[in-house]
Structures are given as structure tokens and as C-alpha cells.
Design goal:
The chain is of the alpha+beta class. It has 12 helices and 5 strands. Helix 4 runs parallel beside helix 6 and helix 5 packs antiparallel against helix 6.
Length: 417
Amino acid sequence: MINHPTVQRLRTAATRLGSGPGAAPPPRTTRRGQAFDLALALFLSYTCGRYAIVAHRTHDAHGTTWNELLLLVPLVPLPLVLRRRHPLAALWTVLPAALLVRSQHPDIAFWEGVVVIVAAYSAAAYGRHPNALLLSLSAATGALAVLFDDALLPHFPNAVVALFVLVPVFAVAYELRMWRRRVEEGRERLSALERDRLAALQRAVEHERARIARELHDVVTHNVSMMTIQAGAARKILDTAPDRAREAMAAVESGGRAAMTELRHVMGLLTMDSDTGDDPAASADLSPQPGLGRLDALVDGVRRAGLPVELTVRGERRAVPPGVELAAYRVVQEALTNTVKHAGGADAEVTVDYAPDGLRVEVTDTGGRPTGAAATGNGRGLLGLRERLAVYGGTLHTGPRPRGGYRVTASIPLESR
């Protein structure tokens, strides 16, 4: 194998012009393309035949040879009809016929050279075999050198010469205009993609802010409500029952510590990527989010606030995704908080049911009188719970009970194991 640098560069160029293994196949020939190829072949056949007749009249001395040549000349361009489907075969069919015509008379060699140029272009544009393409283009180059050697250029009227000049100019201008249009369209697409990316980023930021707001609402509302009720109870019984007042104040302290712990957890998540300070992420409280295992502690805290609560767990306990556990915990927390604020003096019951196809959480109360903390409600808690549950395909149903009181029911589907 020849490894000369020039040959290697030619082989590389041929590989790019042709299609190597694994390259995409050429586009399928359309009816418009087939019609154009047929029209081109017929036009060149007519032109070559016309100039052959003129040359025959001018040089009649060749006799019989010219009669045979007149039959061959119009047939040389006809293989161009297949220049897209079989480009190499069309080129190798045109080459010997063009050289034969030139050997008989050079007067029409120019038009035969035009046919070879069209065939060589088609081979370069649609050829599929790089090695054969390299050989074919080399042969076409040699054939053109022979055809144009001392070839007589045809005489064209001035109008035709102007047309030959203007057509390429118009073609280049049109391609330049289309290129500019494609560049503009590409810029517009990039701008649209950038706008979509920024809009998606903004939506993600808004969703994250909403999630953080819900998390802070769940943390603050429950614990602060408990602390408010306990502090109010302690104030009322401070003189008459100091021991019970101290217990209420201890519950306030415990609720405050719990609120601070969860707030540190949420704020620690917010500062995980912060570049300011002495690495706040390192000192953030990374304790796990509350789940169903902490319902006992939650219920005990509510009991200390003065609300009788019963916790019932049905079914076989099994592992559920952490996000589902957190959502179920927040449902119980929000429902008990609302009971404390809106149904003072009522009894509450929490039921957690591990069903085969999902997790069901229900919180009910017997109804009561609103407390002073009821004025702080804004209705966002239940809305946030619905959004939480929707992430896992769950639903939330709330409403009054037929015999008085209120019911909050959450259903979360779980994959069967």
C-alpha cells in the first residue's frame, strides 16, 4: 500500500466525499431530482448532437467515421440520468465514450468534457466507496486533460455569455442569502432555548421557594401553636397551681427546642452550597427528616398541650420511602395543629393504616371551641399538604364529620412488595 502523504490526503478527501462504513446513506432521489437529471441528460445530448452535426458539415472528409460518430455523440450524456443512484457507474460509462469521440474529432471535445465534469461531480457528491471514488476522480482528471487539450471552444452569442456569467452570480447570491437566513434562524433558536432555560430555572426557583415555605410553615406553625397554648395555660394557673404551671413552661421549652432543631435542619439545607462564612454546611444539623417513627413523640407533645390524642397503627409496619414518611408525618402534624387552634377541648384520634396497596393516614377530632391561636391560620397548610401528597400520587380529603368535629384523610399509594 502506498503511504505517500499526498496519496493519504487524497484518500482522506475521498473518504469525506464518499461515505465510509457507518456513514449515513445518501438522501433518496425525489421525483423532482429524477426529472432534473433526465432534463440535464437530454439537454447535453441535444447540445452534443447539434455541435456534432455542425462539425460534420464543416469537416465532411471523414465520411463513414463521422456517420458512426453522429450516432455515438448524443448517447454519451444519457448515463447522467442515473448519476444519483449509480454515480460511479455513470462516470465510468461516460469516460471511454467521451475519449472515443475526442479521438475521432476534437471539435466537439469541449462538450464531452462538460459531460465528464458533471459525471465527476455526481461521483464526488453521491459516491459510496472511498477507494473507488479516489480512482474514479483521478481517471476523470486525466480524461479532462486529454479532452481539453487543443479543444476548440464553441462560439457563444454575447447574450448567452452574459447569461453564463449571471447565472453563477445569482446562484452564489441566493446561496449566500439562504446561508444568512439559516444563521439568523439558528440565532433565534438559540435565543429561544436560552429563554426557555431561564424560564425553567425561574420556575424551579419558585417551586423550591414554595417547598421551603411549606416546610417552614409545618415546622413553625405546629411548635409555636403548642408553645402559645402552653404559655397561656401557665399564665392562668401560675398563682393557683404553680406545679402545673412549671410543667406547662417545661413543655414550652421542649417545643421551642424542637422548633429550633427543625429550623436548623431546614436552614442547613439552604446553606449547603453557600460560599460565605466558615462552611455553614459543615455545622448544619443533618439529622433525618421526621417520619412515622416520630409520631409517638409528636402525639406526646400534643397531649402535654392539653389535647387528648389516641394513636392507632393498623396493619404490618413496613419500610416506606422517606418522602412518603415525611408527607404522612406532616399530615398528622398539620391536622393536630389545626385541632389545637380550632377545636380547643376536643378529643383527637390518629390512625395509621398500612394497607397492602398504600398508606392511609386519618386524623379526626370531636369538635370544640376555637382558641386564640386560630386567628393565625391562613389556609395554606392544607394546600401545601395536597401538593406534597400529589408528588407521590396521593390524595387529601378534609371536611366536617356527620356527628360533629373534623376529619383529615390522606391516601398514598405504595408499590406492592
